[in-house]
Design brief:
Strand content: 35-45%
Radius of gyration: 21 Å
Structural class: mainly beta
Largest sheet: 8 strands, antiparallel, barrel
Low-confidence stretches: 143-176
Mean pLDDT: 81
Strand order of the largest sheet: 8-9-10-13-12-11-14-15
Number of helices: 2
Number of domains: 2
Amino acid sequence: VIDTLLPVGTWKEVEFGVHTLDPDLLSDSTVLEENNFPPNVSIRAQGSYTPAGGSAQSFTFTSDLNAEREIEFKPPIEVTADGTTNITFSVQLTEWFRQQDSTLVDPQQAGDDGPFEELVEDNIKYSIEGFEDDDQDGEDEGDDENGDDDDDGDDDGDGDDDGDGDDDGDDDDDGDDDGETEIETNLNNSGPDPDASGEAEYEEETDRTEFKVEAEDLDPGTYDLVVADTTRGALEVGDGEDGTEGEIEFKNPSEPGHPLLDFDPRGKHVEVAQDGTVYLEVDFPSSGGQ
């Protein structure tokens, strides 16, 4: 947790650094002693990995990665003298050991000189995100102050939400705001696992397009994401804080750890399936408001 004061002004970006801890430096040696952390290492992750057709294997992954990541705030963050601004930096651990086609790699093969060392190091760098988070829920919902959060009205008081059932451009209910398109829908439970649920979200801006599918409370394992009868990727479901969870996020342009979005899910049938059994499905809307 970082708690610091920033000068009043407009902040467009931040630089986030990851570096190894040197036992010969007083500041680093204190951290090493207090946390029982190995020296000359910047990252340590412990968990279990289940290869296809195999059983779970415990692992400890360490890296000596030294890197910097510039995070651009969109929109820029305004710091004023009479208010408090909260910024959240999130690290998407689920993307570290994932290839572009969303399949997982063995963490034990991602260490020094391993075949997946470069892949995982790139994934770690790009897994760090920063955004304004005044409601402190850990979710990037846009401009919380002026109402671009996830309620359906126009919060900034300029009267653009006129109650006529149309999205006039300022709220966040799947309309097209200034050339941006956002479509979100829940996945329907098909019956084999009555506790399972999920959602799918499509987001398009002038310089990027993303499509994300999330699933919760399915049995742990690997599931196929099928769009219009074509398998587009693998969704890994594992233990989370409140049950099981998993997600797959396609991006265009591509980013390390994310499969390339080279298809259009709008107006297509989307399924989360395993061995031919469909657990979640939906006819994804072709536009917002459907």
